Prior knowledge:
By secondary structure, the chain is α+β, with helices and mostly antiparallel strands. It has 9 helices and 10 strands. It has helices spanning 12-15, 19-26, 109-118, 120-146, 149-162, 173-180, 184-196, 212-219, 225-233, and strands spanning 30-34, 39-41, 49-53, 57-63, 69-75, 95-100, 102-108, 168-169, 200-203, 206-209. The strands form 3 sheets. A 4-stranded antiparallel beta sheet has the order 2-6-4-5. The protein has a 3-stranded antiparallel beta sheet with strand order 1-7-3. The longest helix has 27 residues, at 120-146. 38% of the residues are buried.
Amino acid sequence: MNISLRPNIKNRLLSLLPREEMIAICRDTEPVDLPRSMVVATPDEPVDHVYFPNSGILSVIAISPQGNRAEAGLFGRDGFSPTCAALGIDRSALEVFVQVPGEGLRLPYPSFLAALERSSEFRSLLLKFVHCLAIQTAFTSLSNAVHQIDKRLARWLLMCHDRTESDEIALTHEFISLMLAVRRPSVTTALHELEGSGFIRAERGYLTIRNRIGLEAFAADAYGQPEREYQRLIGPIL
């Protein structure tokens, strides 16, 4: 596809490439809508395409043999999926699906591998993101172990807010309970606490961040370290 015909490339990893390399890589991509619940990586199935979101939020989900599910990480225009592809692995062990709709670009897997071989800068940027997502996953495990649900929720909302251009985020109680691996009544209670403190406003199907600074202070050490690592190695998320 002619690069001049596509909208601005907002994916952070692609936009940081030297122009000629970006054009060479994007020439093989195609624009793609990312509707809510679209699966872009399925466990144990061959990788067909690698996705580079321009907007929206995607969740990385671990699924047990018995079907239990929990979110291991999330990303938006700051990343790509599946990350296993950057390591030359053609099957993902994790599910990745869209939690907040958006759009982006996708690259056929053979073209992706060729771009990795051709461009050391492309490969380096992708591996830095793989590292940053691993740090995020590690701190998700830490937060799940040591923080109460209200701080875990505050952290998760801040991470979602980082990846949107609006203070309003389309999220339901049911979806949050799945992402945090807790029961819905626990999510409802935690949302009421955050709303009562003036940090958010919760409406049917939507959450609005009202006091970002206060929400960060409330989250305390549950939030920040993975974000600082991304900033150090790659730059601002948005």
